[in-house]
Every structure is written in structure tokens, then in C-alpha cells.
Design goal:
With 142 residues, this protein is α+β, with helices and mostly antiparallel strands. It has 2 helices and 6 strands. β4 and β5 form a beta hairpin.
Length: 142
């Protein structure tokens, strides 16, 4: 398990772009499970949407990718690198994420070659699938 301080030692994201609060399971270079508690205090709810707050899909994807990034960057050999998006496929949003939801995000490495790879990620709220996507990434030395 990794707390927020440990996560910040692995990935470079900071407020307002750090979108994972805790890693509850990790198998470096294979799999990670992360948690994001979504509150009404999130900055993006000011404009998305007034009177009907919904977490923007692009930020949901970013949160899922950050969990995958922790799995890829946790080993010491990858520390200091940054995982950049190279593409996304098979993206599906199944249910809106709203204040009060707790996201449970599962990211699994499905392919890796050199400094590139693919991760399959899913996000759940109360055990219900809310989003899924395949992320292609490249690891770049910072």
C-alpha cells in the first residue's frame, strides 16, 4: 500500500492534477489498484457542471492512467522517468462519477517492449464499472 506522499515520490503529478489518493495493491511492472475519493471541493466541479456536478471524463481517464503510471514507475530502475500518453483505445464511459463517489481503479500491464507498453484500466464505484480504457505509453527520462 502507498500513501499520497509515497505516490508523489513515484509520479510527478501535483495539485490540481494528482488524481489518485492511495494505492491499495501493487505488483510493480504488472498491476496496481488505486483509490480516488471524489468530493465537491474538486476544482473542476466549479464549471462541470453548475447544478449538476460530474467528473470530466478526461480527468477520469487521467486518474486511471496515473494508477498505471505508479505500477510502471514504482521500481527503482524507472524512478525519475515520466510516463507519457502515446494513445488510447477502447475508451468507454458507463456511468457518471459525482461528488461523494469513491473510485477504485485497476490498471494492468498487457504489453511491454523497451520503454513502451499498453495498460488496460477500469474504474469502479461501489463495485460497478464506470469507465474502461486501453492506454499506450512511453517512458521518458526526465
Amino acid at each position: 500500500m502507498l500513501n499520497i506522499e509515497e505516490i508523489q515520490k513515484i509520479i510527478p503529478h501535483r495539485f490540481p492534477m494528482l488524481l489518485v489518493d492511495r494505492i491499495i495493491e501493487i505488483e510493480p511492472l504488472k498491476r496496481a489498484v488505486g483509490i480516488k475519493s471524489v468530493t465537491m471541493n474538486e476544482h473542476f466541479f466549479q464549471g462541470h457542471f453548475p447544478g449538476k456536478p460530474i467528473m470530466p471524463g478526461v480527468l477520469l481517464l487521467e486518474a486511471m492512467a496515473q494508477v498505471g503510471g505508479v505500477a510502471m514507475l514504482e521500481p527503482e530502475v524507472n524512478r525519475g522517468k515520466i510516463a507519457f500518453f502515446a494513445g488510447m483505445d477502447r475508451v468507454k464511459f458507463r456511468k457518471p462519477v459525482v461528488p461523494g463517489d469513491q473510485l477504485r481503479m485497476v490498471a494492468e500491464l498487457i504489453k511491454s517492449r523497451g520503454n513502451t507498453g499498453k495498460i488496460w484500466a477500469e474504474a469502479f464505484v461501489d463495485g460497478e464499472l464506470v469507465a474502461e480504457a486501453e492506454f499506450m505509453f512511453v517512458l521518458i527520462t526526465n
